[in-house]
Amino acid sequence: MLRSVEDLIVHITEAMTLLPGDVVLTGTPAGVGPLNDGDEVAVTIEGIGTLTNKVIKRG
């Protein structure tokens, strides 16, 4: 990342108020490629669980 998380939060909160539950997206880490039809994407939140979705091609 070019800026620290702290710097990003400071910059964002100069323009708007962040509320509980807001998400700050910082981009894609190095080495991550495109998603392909049939891939699975899983997001885990500790204490809540894991949400898994299969990527499907539209059209």
Automatic annotation (TrEMBL):
InterPro entries, A to Z: Fumarylacetoacetase-like_C (IPR011234), Fumarylacetoacetase_C_sf (IPR036663)
Species this protein is from: Streptomyces thioluteus
Keyword field contains Cell membrane: no
Name under which the protein is recorded: Fumarylacetoacetase-like C-terminal domain-containing protein
Source domain of life: Bacteria
Assigned keywords, A-Z: Metal-binding
PANTHER family per record: ACYLPYRUVASE, ACYLPYRUVASE FAHD1, MITOCHONDRIAL
Cross-referenced Gene3D superfamilies: Fumarylacetoacetase-like, C-terminal domain
Keyword Metal-binding: yes
Fumarylacetoacetase-like C-terminal domain mapped to chain residues: 1-55
